[in-house]
Amino acid sequence: MLSAQKRDVWKLILLFFVPAMFVWLTTMVIPFLYGIWISFVQWDGIGNNYEFIGLGNYIKIFSNAKFMQSLGRTAIYTIGTVALSNVLGIALGLLLTSALKGRNLFRTAIFVPNVIGGVAMGYIWKYIFNYGFTAIGASLGIQALSTSMLSDPTKAMIALIIVSSWQLSAYLMIIYVAGFTNVPAELVEAARVDGASGWAVLRNVRLPMIRSSITICLFLAIVRSFMVFEVNMTLTDGGPFNSTEMIALRIYNRAFVSLKFGDAQAQAVVLFVIVAVISVLQAYFTSRREVQM
Fold first, then answer.
1. φ, ψ for residue 200, nearest 5 deg
2. What is the pTM of this model?
3. At residue 49, does pLDDT exceed 90?
4. pLDDT at residue 99 above 90?
5. Helices 153-181 & 103-115, crossing angle to 10 degrees?
6. For 249-268, what is each residue's pLDDT tens digit?
């Protein structure tokens, strides 16, 4: 028999554990398993007319040129966004940890893009590209700005990368600011006394000391880039001519526009596996190079 004190401890544990476990199971585990099961059936999302087809959905998507093209575009977008957002994040982190007056004000102002929702940001930038830049180009006679970037397949992808990097770098900046703040000042000062230039101090002292921050930021940037949806839908809607349709937007269109839920869920499972493998490998290889402080 349990003592009264132990019963009270178990009651307290169950009081906190059971609700959290219930929420986790009902919002994460069960929908995830249900989604995997749907990937093995043909279903239009309406009614209970499930038709089990095994690996048919997976075979179909890997033989589908549009799926592979969408996956390739997502990879290009991810590489561009991850690189640009991290470079901007590091630059902003350096700037906001230097002897700059009003640093806290600048940190707040720069972080604002991350607060803006993806849908609102997409529509705002769509208006800027379609009317703002074109008006500037027309008034100044700049041919490159006379037409919207969103009307050209290549430029539309660049515009998508720029907008996403602009928002993501604001979030990564906070992590890099924390990393640069924790770099021991005596190491930086010793390097400067030894005659190291500013670039040498950054490359040989500061960046190696924030590798843990770089690992986190790369992980976050990769996951968010592969899963991009709101900005893709509102800024370009996959256009022009499906040239910017990322994999998440394609999954949405297959499920809720074409009513091919089984096919869409199979693509979602493939996307999950790709993101999981890339993220784990990136975290493993970059963490091995971290400097222990």
1. -65, -40
2. 0.88
3. no
4. no
5. 140
6. 999 999 999 999 999 999 99
